[in-house]
Write a structure and sequence with these properties.
Blueprint: H1 10-18, H2 38-58, E1 68-78, E2 83-84, H3 86-92, E3 99-111, E4 114-115, E5 120-127, E6 143-150, H4 155-168, E7 175-182, E8 184-188, E9 192-197, E10 203-208, E11 220-221, E12 230-242, E13 251-252, E14 256-265
């Protein structure tokens, strides 16, 4: 599937910004000389255009069903327990579980024809109801998300990462309100996996691979991972926080049996 093409009317604007007129040329005039700080403003404008384009293209219908052969590591945490007793699950069904963080680290592969070896993408989700209750026959939530794409990725790779997150989450990312290129740490320390992304670590996950099997209230697994193509086990959420902007909410929900970790292949 081909990637969307940026409309051509934008090209003259970018060309004008990136090619300032030079004194001595026929078209130059002193009144056209850039004022101090102009280059910094233009740089911010270019970055704003890039991010806006990523958001617009990420929500395009043609990205709803991306294709690829890709594999790597996956973790998620939500604000409701996935392994618990029925009494606790019932108490959380309507009031909890409205937020989640999903993170993919690609080992190798491509998506929509673009190689994304070694790159990562993180999605912070906020919905109007428990994100997992569709497994129990509940209504589909309305979701807004903030995405963080690997700063090492070029424009095509950033778009491919957003498309991959949208496809592998089965569209759960919903309305993408912003896309932020940023350094992403996705580290497996053996007993624990750590993920951070965004300015000031706006997203922070710490997942322990050991989960206490407390028999209280007949504990059992109630939910499965949000993402498709995963081979994942239940983890203990040591840290789960979102302090970024754009979603109208922030959260911190540690020390819960609310995580999955493992691998993905698509």
């Amino acid at each position: 599937m081909g990637l969307p093409i940026t409309p051509s009317p934008i090209n003259p604007i970018v060309s004008l910004m990136s090619s300032p007129l030079v004194p001595g040329t026929r078209a130059w005039h002193p009144s056209l000389a850039p004022e101090p700080g102009t280059s910094r403003i233009i740089s911010h404008m270019k970055r704003a255009f890039t991010v806006a384009a990523l958001v617009a293209l990420a929500t395009a219908p043609m990205l709803a069903g991306g294709t690829g052969t890709v594999s790597g590591s996956y973790v998620e945490a939500r604000t409701a327990e996935v392994f618990t007793g029925g009494c606790i699950m019932n108490s959380e069904a309507e009031t909890m579980g409205k937020q989640a963080v999903l993170a993919w680290k690609v080992d190798r592969g491509s998506f929509n024809g673009v190689s994304i070896d070694g790159l990562a993408v993180v999605a912070a989700l906020s919905g109007d109801r428990n994100l997992g209750m569709t497994e129990m026959g509940g209504a589909k939530p309305s979701v807004r998300s903030a995405l963080y794409v690997d700063a090492r990725a070029n424009g095509a790779q950033q778009l491919a990462l957003v498309a991959m997150a949208n496809t592998l989450s089965n569209g759960l990312v919903g309305t993408i309100v912003n896309v932020t290129p940023t350094p992403i740490q996705f580290a497996d320390h053996g007993a624990e996996i750590e993920v951070t992304a965004g300015p000031g670590n706006a997203v922070a996950l710490g997942i322990s691979k050991h989960i206490p099997h407390d028999p209280t209230c007949g504990a059992m697994q109630w939910f499965h991972p949000f993402a498709a193509g995963t081979d994942a086990a239940i983890g203990m959420t040591v840290q789960h926080a979102f302090t970024g902007s754009g979603l109208g909410t922030k959260w911190s929900d540690p020390n819960r049996r609310s995580a999955f970790f493992g691998t993905f292949s698509y």
